[in-house]
């Protein structure tokens, strides 16, 4: 059972705009983001050889950039599928951009992009001639534009150093109100790279065309109607279960949203084959929540026909430190009949 606040924060993307303080300026947001990332990096040991699978919570921060300069492409240590621990072949769904831009001595290379409903998963590398110290890694502040419109985004994902000079990141941006289907003109704009407390300004812009229809067509779903309530009165209604090559998700609506307390929430149980199954809350806003299966524990067995899940929650401490609160059952067990996927 997880008992550390930094481990908890690794698993959920929280939109800073949902909480009480509204007067964060860009500098304050960058400091919050940097301090959160440094804390997580110090807590997480290196895994999988040179890849430190460090999950990071990305705050919603707006930055801009323009103009580009070509650069030599970097090698990709792992493709997006391997990095995410997904066993299915995603080649037919990927848009391979493979474009690098160098500005102010830092190279950003956009590798691959996958569109999944209202989510966009992006793989990119960041490097320079500065040797990275242990637990150091680069972080980019990105804006997403679709068909010329800047979107409000939150993101979560993984980052790890693939050599002494390069960080590889795979981030999933949740675009709640945008359905990523049809032909799309996408721009990913970055005007700053963070390393520790140092913020380097620059102009790294990537523009490309893609289409989100194929994975959407191949996504199956089951409608749900299961509710549970936290101790603070915040209520979750599980509305939809989806399955595609990127994995399984459960979508929830939220009522009576509370800003004075936050919880780590999981849907835990087993399939009909006896395998343990866990969905963790990975994105949350005032009226919306998204649970994703934990790939680190293995993908859902393709032969499973039934899921039995129970909601559990533990309250985050108000101050940083150990997660002393134990997980408590916050709702009744419910069943998802996977034979009804369509």
UniProtKB/TrEMBL annotation:
Residue span(s) of domain DUF4179: 43-128
Entry's transmembrane regions: 49-68
Key words, A-Z: Membrane, Transmembrane, Transmembrane helix
Pfam families given in the database record: DUF4179
InterPro entries, alphabetized: DUF4179 (IPR025436)
Annotated Gene3D superfamilies: bacillus anthracis domain, Conserved domain protein
Protein name from the UniProt record: DUF4179 domain-containing protein
Organism: Clostridium taeniosporum
């Amino acid at each position: 059972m997880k008992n550390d606040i930094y481990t908890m924060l690794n698993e959920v993307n929280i939109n800073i705009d949902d909480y009480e303080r509204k007067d964060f300026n860009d500098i304050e947001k960058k400091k919050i983001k940097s301090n959160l990332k440094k804390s997580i990096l110090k807590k997480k040991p290196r895994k999988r050889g040179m890849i430190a699978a460090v999950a990071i919570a990305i705050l919603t921060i707006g930055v801009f950039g323009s103009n580009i300069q070509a650069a030599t492409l970097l090698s990709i240590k792992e493709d997006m599928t391997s990095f995410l621990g997904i066993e299915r072949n995603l080649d037919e769904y990927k848009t391979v951009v493979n474009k690098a831009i160098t500005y102010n001595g830092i190279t950003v290379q956009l590798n691959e992009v996958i569109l999944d409903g209202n989510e966009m998963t992006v793989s990119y590398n960041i490097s320079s001639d500065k040797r990275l110290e242990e637990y150091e890694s680069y972080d980019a502040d990105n804006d997403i534009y679709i068909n010329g419109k800047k979107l409000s985004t939150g993101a979560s994902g993984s980052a790890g150093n693939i050599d002494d000079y390069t960080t590889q990141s795979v981030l999933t941006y949740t675009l709640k109100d945008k359905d990523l289907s049809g032909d799309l003109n996408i721009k990913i704009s970055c005007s700053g790279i963070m390393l520790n407390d140092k913020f380097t300004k620059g102009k790294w812009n990537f523009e490309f065309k893609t289409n989100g229809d194929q994975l959407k067509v191949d996504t199956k779903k089951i409608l749900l109607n299961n509710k549970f309530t936290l101790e603070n009165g915040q209520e979750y209604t599980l509305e939809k279960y989806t399955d595609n090559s990127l994995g399984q998700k459960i979508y929830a609506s939220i009522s009576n949203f509370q800003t004075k307390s936050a919880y780590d929430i999981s849907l835990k149980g087993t399939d009909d084959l006896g395998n343990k199954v866990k969905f963790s809350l990975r994105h949350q806003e005032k009226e919306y929540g998204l649970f994703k299966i934990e790939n680190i524990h293995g993908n859902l067995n393709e032969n499973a026909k039934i899921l039995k899940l129970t909601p559990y929650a533990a309250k985050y401490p108000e101050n940083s430190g150990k997660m002393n609160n134990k997980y408590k059952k916050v709702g009744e067990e419910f069943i998802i009949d996977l034979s009804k996927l369509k």
